[in-house]
Write a structure and sequence with these properties.
The complex is a heterotrimer.
Chain A lengths: L1 H15 L8 E9 L10 H15 L6 E9 L4 H13 L5 E4 L3 H14 L2 E4 L16 E3 L4 H14 L4 E7 L2 H16 L3 E8 L7 H9 L4 E5 L2 H13 L8 E4 L4 H7 L1 H4 L3 E4 L7 H14 L5 H20 L5 H10 L2 E3 L3 E5 L5 E2 L2 E6 L12 E7 L1 H4 L13
Parallel strand pairs in A: 1-2, 1-3, 3-4, 4-5, 6-7, 6-8, 8-9, 9-10
Antiparallel strand pairs in A: 10-14, 11-12, 12-13, 14-15
Chain B lengths: L6 H5 L9 H16 L6 H23 L8 H16 L5 H23 L4 H21 L16 E2 L3 E2 L3 H23 L2 H11 L1 H6 L4 H27 L9 H14 L6 H15 L6 H15 L4 H10 L4
Antiparallel strand pairs in B: 1-2
Helix pairs in contact in B: 3-7, 3-10, 3-11, 3-12, 4-5, 4-6, 4-10, 5-10, 7-10, 8-10, 11-12, 11-14
Chain C lengths: L8 H32 L6 H19 L3 H22 L9 H23 L15 E3 L4 E3 H23 L1 H11 L1 H6 L4 H23 L9 H16 L4 H21 L7 H12 L10
Antiparallel strand pairs in C: 1-2
């Protein structure tokens, strides 16, 4: 396979007629994500657009690099995803796979990537396992993980006076780990958890559970769920007058596009943590406007993460001089200082976790919001070291 | 419950001592083709097709020959995949033992659900199996050992009989080929046994079978359990191929997919489900870039299949040839 | 104050009320399924997708044409019903001479198509639909805060269910319908246009799904998957109630809503499967369903 790949690379370089510069590197990137299911809006085609923008902005062609992007829909099915990933590495000569929301698919691809000595630049999945229980030397986990979100929101809200918490927990592994992470942070900051209820997943009607939360007398209702469940819970909390009565909602995993779907009317006052918001500084605004022009919506943090991870990856490939050896490229990424237009200063830790600031946002009220995408006020920020879980010894690949 | 309505008359296989020559020839050609396949196509993909072919064939036993439409076959496929993955990863069993564990689990589950479900007929039966499959899905989502939405990941490929490593795709391919081909031949044997003849009699005319003295419910339960067991064999094998077990395998859309495969290929035919599985899996793989259109295309195939090609691809060919396939 | 298993009665009362609200959706949807099944002998797998379509049509009417909630409550079911009639005429009607399972398979395929199309055009995050002004706010009942809109959901569903029941069981038209269910050939011989009746019945059953969708739009996220999650539960409701009577579908819908609501207090983890467990028990004791005729 390796031989075949080398030949096809040469052929490709010859075909595209890249100017013979100091280097002749060809790179093939695969964007593997959900293009039809529940993550299609926050990753999907938008992530492909982001990756393409990164290649353009890197000016790959001027640097003697040929970069090709392929994409596929994993349909949130691990077997479909791992089949595509294997085929991309073994047959199609893909060097790095990007995005990969849905943790079951991401974990499968992490293993395959390691076997194939490729690179996984994960932006879409939230599972902390990617850099902990199932860490691999070829994994880079760029944008967020559930622990960082829980940490950001949990600490900030407890410190702001929300001492008593009640959790609505989606009753499966993800929901429980989100609750567990947040509980630890809440307690560390002097708060307490007064109750929780396990909500079957997926659920449409949260009124019964919200009433239980209301009855608990908690200051904060922590929503340890995701996607449509979170949206419905918030919608119904506003309907039952829970937020109006003074209890705060904390969404532990939510994206700008979910808030956009709800509208400020319903979501106002909601607190959440994200790694990126389009309206933070000139760099983010410039990128987001260009993204908007091609894709028609503002980038989610996942899509922004695909852009930045691709830039960093291409730079590392250029330094190494080849994209063949995945682990070598990842090692180079870990050694670099990255100053990114969207995420600021980023360091990639030895376990593959990218460390960057995380931000606590509050959703603007309908009166404050000046446009369809004018969603957040930034409340505070935490550094990457604080936000993400500490490294596990067995995942310190610099020692191995 | 004559699901295969008009086609059955042309497709009834004469009871003969052995396999009809035509079938024998097709099986031999198929086997030769499959032995050569991994040298041309991507082996992991080919293995996936074979697992689904077995799954569809197992489903076809129930629908095409038993006349029972189960809308919850993902339950057996998926639970076997979980049990086999768990056995290989946590208990450290060899691949063949893991697959046996998974298959047995599916059989037990099939017996339990089947004994309730056969109390109802027709559409009720379909809905009841669907509802039970939904319960299995909730268990898979919440139970400790299934790993929730992460699934069971990184299942080792292990050594066959503790001796031969299956880490290489080619080695694994021939193992999977042996298992699935064996499974399909086994199903063929059942259909063309006296037991299979009774099944067809029940499908054609249940009251008549009862009046002839057959314990119809017992036959239905046996065929349900057999079908669940073989679906389990397919699921367990798939977990070894992909080294994972996940919620996808127990979700109700998987139950829908296997119906689609069988319907497309031709229910009540021997080779239809295999063709149907091949087409659907290939489509999912190569249309992956089209995103949501995959589900729409599947829906369109369902609709066209029901409206125009109820006999399925192989059913149509079989009618042309005037020979059962 | 007495407590039941550690739960104060006020809380319990509140939860029963919430259960009734959810039961309203179950009742309207299972009623639609029962009406269709009664005459066409088809299990309409597309019912969930059409419920979703009802919610989307309401959203589209507002978004593109500026038509608000109240007209939408009539218009959206009509549009969905018309679409249903189109489906019946062009596709379902070709299957009546075949086994009923083909109808199930066909509608399953239609559900995939409808859902896929909405997913392609409107994404998956869902769309916002506001509660109409007339019904915003709520009442403090002492034991709980009841949003006006939820009270309206119960009232509207009871009204629709009762009128449907009345129409089918007590009017001449209903008598024709029931007779046509028993023996279509004979009824046709009396000069009644049976195919037309079948077509309208399917349209009506589907319109009920669309109606439930509009009712749901302001409280649930308008989302392409909203029907997929509900439909399997409604199937279980239908199995429990049995297909024998219209009343059975209605009563079982409300009843299971309440049972599910209570489970959410006592054993929340089990609330998603409680209906399926009940279904299994019913099948063991009374396989024809609570209100069904013995087979």
């Amino acid at each position: 396979m390796i031989n075949k790949f080398a030949i096809s690379t040469l052929a490709l370089a010859a075909m595209t007629g890249a100017p013979a510069m100091a280097q002749d590197i060809s790179v093939k990137l695969g964007v593997l994500n959900d293009r039809s299911g529940i993550y299609a809006d926050l990753s999907g085609e938008g992530s492909v657009v982001a990756a393409r923008m990164a290649v353009e902005d890197f000016k790959a062609a001027d640097k003697g690099m040929t970069v090709e992007i392929v994409s596929a829909d994993h349909q949130n099915k691990p077997d479909v995803g791992s089949n595509i990933a294997r085929q991309w590495y073994d047959v199609d000569g893909v060097n790095a796979i990007l995005d990969i929301p849905t943790s079951s698919v991401a974990l499968a691809v992490a293993n395959i990537t390691h076997e194939a000595n490729g690179v996984m630049l994960n932006s879409g999945a939230g599972s902390t396992s990617l850099t902990r229980e199932q860490c691999r030397p070829t994994t880079v986990h760029w944008t967020y993980d559930t622990a960082a979100l829980a940490n950001g929101t949990g600490a900030a809200m407890t410190n702001a006076g929300g001492k008593k918490w009640f959790f609505l927990t989606a009753d499966y592994a993800f929901g429980h780990s989100l609750e567990e992470n947040t509980t630890a942070v809440v307690e560390a900051n002097g708060g307490e958890v007064v109750g929780q209820v396990n909500v079957p997943f997926p659920a449409q009607d949260f009124s019964s559970f919200l009433l239980q939360a209301q009855g608990s007398g908690a200051d904060v209702i922590g929503l340890a769920n995701a996607g449509g469940d979170t949206v419905n819970a918030i919608k119904q909390a506003s309907e039952f007058g829970i937020t109006q009565a003074g209890q705060k909602l904390a969404a532990l995993l939510m994206f700008a596009n979910d808030v956009h779907a709800l509208g400020p009317q319903t979501a106002q006052g909601l607190s959440l943590t994200e790694a990126f918001y389009w309206d933070q500084n000139d760099g983010t605004r410039e990128f987001s406007q260009r993204f908007m022009d091609t894709h028609g919506s503002m980038p989610s943090m996942v899509q922004a993460g695909v852009y930045s991870a691709t830039l960093a990856y291409l730079e590392a490939v250029q330094t190494v001089g080849s994209a063949e050896d995945g682990k070598a490229v990842v090692d180079q990424m870990k050694a670099m200082d990255i100053d990114d237009a969207l995420f600021g200063k980023v360091t990639i830790r030895a376990d593959g976790r990218a460390l960057h600031d995380m931000y606590l946002f509050e959703v603007k009220t309908a009166e404050e919001s000046t446009g369809e995408w004018d969603l957040y006020n930034q409340i505070s920020s935490v550094t990457g070291e604080e936000a993400f879980l500490p490294m596990l010894d067995e995942c310190d690949f610099s020692k191995q | 419950m004559a699901m295969a309505d008009k086609t059955t008359s042309t497709q009834r296989v004469e009871q003969t001592a052995g396999m009809p020559t035509l079938h024998k020839a097709i099986f031999v050609v198929l086997l030769i083709g499959l032995i050569a396949l991994p040298f041309f196509a991507y082996p992991v993909f080919a293995m996936k097709v074979m697992c689904f072919a077995l799954f569809a064939a197992a489903f076809n036993l129930l629908l095409g020959f038993g006349g029972l439409l189960s809308f919850g076959h993902a339950a057996y496929f998926g639970s076997a995949s979980y049990v086999a993955a768990h056995a290989a990863k946590v208990w450290g069993l060899t691949p063949e033992l893991s697959i046996l564990c998974g298959t047995a689990a599916a059989g037990v589950l099939g017996f339990a659900i089947g004994s309730l479900a056969i109390r109802r007929q027709g559409i009720y039966f379909a809905m009841v199996t669907l509802a039970f499959a939904q319960m299995v899905y909730f268990v898979a989502l919440q139970a400790e050992f299934t790993g929730g939405e992460d699934g069971i990941q990184g299942v080792p490929r292990g050594n066959l009989f503790g001796l031969f490593s299956l880490a290489d795709n080619m080695a694994l391919y021939f193992f999977v080929l042996a298992v699935t081909f064996g499974g399909i031949l086994f199903l063929y044997r059942i259909v063309h046994s006296p037991f299979g003849e009774v099944l067809k009699a029940i499908r054609e005319n249940e009251p008549r079978a009862i009046s002839l003295g057959y314990d119809v419910n017992r036959y239905k339960l046996i065929v349900f359990t057999l079908s669940a067991t073989m679906a389990g064999l397919a699921g367990a094998t798939k977990s070894q191929v992909f080294q994972l077990a996940s919620l996808t395998d127990v979700h109700w859309s998987m139950s829908g997919e296997v119906v689609l495969m069988t319907l497309l290929g031709g229910m009540g035919t021997v080779f239809g489900p295999l063709i149907g599985a091949g087409i659907i899996v290939t489509m999912q793989n190569y249309l992956a870039t089209f995103g949501a259109w995959v589900t729409i295309i599947q829906g369109v195939i369902f609709v066209l299949g029901v409206l125009m090609f109820r006999e399925g691809i192989v059913g149509v060919i079989s009618r042309w040839l005037k020979k059962p396939l | 104050m007495f407590e039941l298993l550690g739960i104060p009665p006020q809380v319990l009362l509140g939860q029963i009320l919430l259960g009734l609200i959810n039961g309203s959706f179950y009742a309207v949807l299972s009623l639609g399924l029962a009406v269709i099944f009664g005459l066409l002998n088809i299990i309409n797998f597309a019912h969930g997708a059409l419920y979703m379509a009802g919610a989307f049509v309401a959203w589209m009417l507002l978004h593109y044409l500026g038509i608000g909630y109240w007209p939408a409550l009539i218009l959206a079911p009509l549009i969905v019903g018309a679409f249903g009639i189109l489906m019946e005429r062009t596709m379902l009607s070709r299957l009546y001479h075949l086994d009923h399972l083909y109808g199930l398979l066909l509608t399953f395929g239609l559900a995939l198509i409808i859902q896929g199309l909405f997913r392609n055009y409107y994404g998956i995050s869902g769309l916002a639909y506001q509660i109409p002004d007339l019904l915003s706010g709520g009442q403090n009942l002492g034991f709980m805060y009841l949003p006006n809109y939820r009270a309206w959901v119960v009232i509207a569903s009871v009204l629709v269910c009762f009128s449907t029941w009345f129409m089918i069981e007590k009017t001449r038209l209903g008598a024709y319908l029931r007779a046509a269910t028993e023996n279509p050939t004979l009824v046709g011989a009396f000069g009644i246009n049976v195919p037309l009746m079948i077509m309208l019945t399917y349209g009506f059953g589907v319109a009920l799904a669309g109606f439930a969708g509009v009712l749901a739009a302001p409280i649930y996220s308008v989302n392409p998957t909203m029907g997929e999650q509900l439909i399997i539960v409604v199937f279980a409701v239908v199995v429990i109630g049995g297909m024998g009577s219209i009343m059975g579908a209605i009563v079982t819908g409300y009843m299971l809503g309440i049972i599910e609501g209570l489970t959410r207090v006592f054993y929340p983890e089990g609330s998603a499967v409680v209906i399926f467990v009940i279904m299994a028990i019913v099948l063991m004791i009374k396989p024809e369903g609570l209100f069904g005729r013995p087979v």
